[in-house]
Amino acid sequence: MSPLPHIVWDMGGVMYRYFTELTLNVGADLGWPVHRIPLGPTGAVPDPDYERLRVGEIDEPAYVPRVVSRLAGIGIDFDPWRDLRWRGQERARTWETIGRIHDAGHRQVVLTNDASRWLGSDWQDTWQHAAWFESLIDVATLDHRKPHPEPYLVAANTLDAPTADCLFVDDLPVNCEGAEATGMQSHLFSIGDPEGSMIDLEKRLGL
């Protein structure tokens, strides 16, 4: 594959650790029976709801309450939207790759479905990493979420570029499929192997 000029990034799971990773850490510290709680891609037991999320049968705003309900069912009062803190939870390896892509002259944008829920409604005005990107696109300002075509087309339009000149990075297969349907190429990020995901991306870009 020849290097692509524009990279379109998802945030949650890719730039930041996924919320079930942090929930698992909290639970381990507090003595929850984490070995028997389904917690997405990071839990020790299968999570059918997360598999539905991966293929687009439900979205994250529907998935998170299912995790909350699951915890409440065993007597745990924990809401990731309310109780998790994101400072310091960036994936260092992803940010290393972002820096390498920047240094190589590729243009980069953010395309996120749920940052407003996790980082606050004013995140675009206060986010300390904004300077790395030409635009920050939050679907809260659009009519549709990924994997609908609109968000990907908006990302390409902000770059004044055809979708064929964009590579989209996301941790959900359904969102990568949505990007490909608009003509973008995609790179599926593995929450279970963030290091390998970035190594593979750098190879694709010839870095």
Characterization of the model:
- The protein is an alpha/beta fold and 207 residues long.
- It folds into two domains: 6-16 and 89-204, HAD superfamily/HAD-like (Rossmann fold); 19-83, no CATH class.
- Helix content is 43%, strand content 11%.
- It is built from ten helices and five strands.
- It has helices at 19-30, 48-55, 60-72, 80-83, 92-103, 115-119, 123-126, 149-158, 173-181, 194-204; strands at 6-9, 107-112, 135-138, 166-170, 185-188.
- Strands 3-2-1-4-5 form a five-stranded parallel sheet, sandwiched between helices.
- Helix 9 (173-181) links the parallel strand 4 (166-170) and strand 5 (185-188).
- Helix 5 (92-103) packs parallel to helix 10 (194-204).
- The longest helix is centred in the N-terminal third of the chain and has 13 residues, at 60-72.
- The mean pLDDT is 95.
Task: Bin the helical content.
Answer: 40-55%
Unreliable segments of 5+ consecutive residues:
none
Oligomer: single chain
CATH fold node name of the largest domain:
Rossmann fold
Q: What structural class do you assign from the helix and strand content?
A: alpha/beta
CATH domain class of the largest domain: Alpha Beta
Tally of domains: 2
Q: What is the N-to-C succession of helices and strands? A: EHHHHHEHHEHEHEH
What is the rounded Rg? 17 Å
Q: Tell me, what's the shape?
A: globular
Number of helices: 10
Main beta sheet strand tally, sense and closure: 5 strands, parallel
Indicate the mean pLDDT. Answer: 95
The tally of strands reads 5
